[in-house]
Amino acid sequence: xxxxxxxxxxxxxxxxxxxxxxxxxxxxxxxxxxxxxxxxxxxxxxxxxxxxxxxxxxxxxxxxxxxxxxxxxxxxxxxxxxxxxxxxxxxxxxxxxxxxxxxxxxxxxxxxxxxxxxxxxxxxxxxxxxxxxxxxxxxxxxxxxxxxxxxxxxxxxxxxxxxxxxxxxxxxxxxxxxxxxxxxxxxxxxxxxxxxxxxxxxxxxxxxxxxxxxxxxxxxxxxxxxxxxxxxxxxxxxxxxxxxxxxxxxxxxxxxxxxxxxxxxxxxxxxxxxxxxxxxxxxxxxxxxxxxxxxxxxxxxxxxxxxxxxxx
Length: 312
Ligand SMILES: C[S@@+](CC[C@H](N)C(=O)[O-])C[C@H]1O[C@@H](n2cnc3c(N)ncnc32)[C@H](O)[C@@H]1O
What we know:
alpha/beta; 38% helix; globular; binds S-adenosylmethionine; Methyltransf_16; SAM-dependent_MTases_sf
């Protein structure tokens, strides 16, 4: 994982300004777990909330008191963004990630409470273990939620079904599902999207709605709702099997230090030119310095190039 990220392996704390708050997220990019790194899509998500919080469905008056669950929260950036807008958030992940997630949530909550005497706009956030597909975990968080959110949680074929079942189990007819995704394999991405479209009404967030800096051509945000309240987990299973994801998406093996999870040779060919061109399209600041965000994206591009370099 280290090669893909400029903040790795030495960056143990990410400082991230969102909605007027200096948040700090501890991370451990050297761990063998994907959830202990802050992923770029979570930052894009939080900055999207910031950009759209003045009017429309993401303004504080509309979000105040809404129940939100974040799946695969990792260090907890996206869910914390919803809390800053007044939501009551349950931030969840696998048991191995929970201690770091809890530390990040507690640290940022106490900073905000200390620094803002009037922290009325701040909602609430708690942490829970939730393994996708685990019925006891799902029951324990008391669905349905107003929002089910997740960033960079769709990265391996075997996760598609338990994630989908879990989202459906946590949703009611009025639930909005917000997923952020960095495309690493166009074919797998498209087929997964088709699977979502069988179950949900899917809307892609236009780039113009995203923060002008915290966006990237390979990062997409989706807003979705169940097509019909009658959609059941059974139908979801059906949607997955009939869809037949042709591409064998390679799972991210936590033992392997790389981040491109679902690549095939064909994907490489399809994607190589466009994604690298997209990455190179990042421009420098007028003074020639790279912003932190740009540095992260260049790191990602460098990792893709380096992966093909064979040292003899
Ligand atoms: C690539 S990380 C993204 C973390 C975080 N959302 C972010 O954007 O920084 C994927 C996350 O999904 C979680 N995850 C993977 N499989 C899971 C499962 N079966 N149940 C619950 N969480 C899972 C991992 O623990 C990890 O935190």
